[in-house]
From TrEMBL:
<dbReference type="GO" id="GO:0006220">
    <property type="term" value="P:pyrimidine nucleotide metabolic process"/>
</dbReference>
<protein>
    <recommendedName>
        <fullName>Cytidylate kinase</fullName>
        <ecNumber>2.7.4.25</ecNumber>
    </recommendedName>
</protein>
<keyword id="KW-0963">Cytoplasm</keyword>
<dbReference type="Pfam" id="PF02224">
    <property type="entry name" value="Cytidylate_kin"/>
</dbReference>
<feature type="binding site">
    <location>
        <begin position="7"/>
        <end position="15"/>
    </location>
    <ligand>
        <name>ATP</name>
    </ligand>
</feature>
<dbReference type="GO" id="GO:0005737">
    <property type="term" value="C:cytoplasm"/>
</dbReference>
<dbReference type="InterPro" id="IPR011994">
    <property type="entry name" value="Cytidylate_kinase_dom"/>
</dbReference>
<keyword id="KW-0067">ATP-binding</keyword>
<comment type="similarity">
    <text>Belongs to the cytidylate kinase family. Type 1 subfamily.</text>
</comment>
<feature type="domain" description="Cytidylate kinase">
    <location>
        <begin position="3"/>
        <end position="202"/>
    </location>
</feature>
<keyword id="KW-0808">Transferase</keyword>
<keyword id="KW-0547">Nucleotide-binding</keyword>
<keyword id="KW-0418">Kinase</keyword>
<dbReference type="InterPro" id="IPR027417">
    <property type="entry name" value="P-loop_NTPase"/>
</dbReference>
<dbReference type="GO" id="GO:0005524">
    <property type="term" value="F:ATP binding"/>
</dbReference>
<dbReference type="InterPro" id="IPR003136">
    <property type="entry name" value="Cytidylate_kin"/>
</dbReference>
<dbReference type="GO" id="GO:0036431">
    <property type="term" value="F:dCMP kinase activity"/>
</dbReference>
Length: 207
């Protein structure tokens, strides 16, 4: 079974995806980490966010087994990820490894922005996780403060809105709900309730 979880920043995709993967004993890939790794490397090496060939080279050289989520979850890396994710050559360079992960024997859970639409349109279960920008900003703000970052609630909300806009309006694989995805709005749901709702959705799609 392939489970595709998509949605905007800090909607709780990863929380749900990890829980479903644990529940069903499936491997999980947080595809945002791939774009974050390319974005971070571009920042470190001073590569411009519109230099398609150089960014694609970084993407093609990624060692997925060596991705350390900790530095990749920093606030500025999220912004850099969204910039490089708008470059079609980068998306193409990361396509095969995501498709290979999705189609491995036994199934998989992937979360991102284009899993149900581009990476695994054949997924049996597609969940589009949403929450208001304000709820998502509150969650991301708490997360970044806990990491020791100095950010204000307003700056995080501005960043979320900017990222939503860029991710939804880019020409290549924009963030959008697949026609056959079930929407899960968890604005007023906690993590456990969101996971419970996601399990109901899986059950409704697989019974
Ligand atoms: N339903 C929820 N209610 C409140 N907080 C939540 C909920 N789901 C997740 N969180 C918290 O919000 C933050 C973001 O969650 P998570 O990383 O799962 O989101 P995401 O959509 O995967 O984010 P990303 O933009 O990195 O892809 C985390 O600190 C997480 O613990
Ligand atoms: N399938 C995906 C996953 C991510 N992105 C881009 O990466 C940015 C960071 O992702 P997070 O899930 O870690 O927040 C995100 O803003 C997207 O621009 C993507 O394009 N496709």
């Amino acid at each position: 079974m392939i489970i595709a979880i998509d949605g905007p920043a800090a909607s709780g995709k990863g929380t749900i995806a990890r829980a479903l993967a644990r529940h069903f004993g499936l491997p999980h890939l947080d595809t945002g980490l791939l774009y974050r790794a390319v974005g971070r490397e571009a920042l470190v090496r001073g590569i411009a966010f519109d230099d398609g060939p150089a960014l694609a080279e970084l993407a093609a050289a990624l060692d997925v087994s060596a991705l350390d989520p900790e530095p990749l979850k920093a606030g500025p890396v999220g912004e850099a990820a969204s910039r490089v994710a708008a470059i079609n050559e980068v998306r193409q360079a990361l396509m095969t490894l995501q498709r290979d992960f999705a189609t491995q024997a036994g199934g998989a859970v992937l979360d991102g922005r284009d899993i149900g639409t581009v990476i695994a349109p054949e997924a049996q279960v597609k969940i589009f996780v949403t929450a208001t920008p304000e709820a998502r900003a509150q969650r991301r703000h708490a997360e970044l403060v806990a990491r020791g970052e100095e950010v204000t609630p307003q700056s995080v909300l501005d960043d979320i809105r900017k990222r939503d806009q860029r991710d939804s309006s880019r020409a290549s694989a924009p963030l959008t709900k697949a026609a056959d995805a079930v929407e899960l709005d968890n604005t007023t749901l906690g993590p456990a309730e969101s996971v419970a709702r996601a399990l109901e959705i899986v059950a409704s799609r697989t019974e």
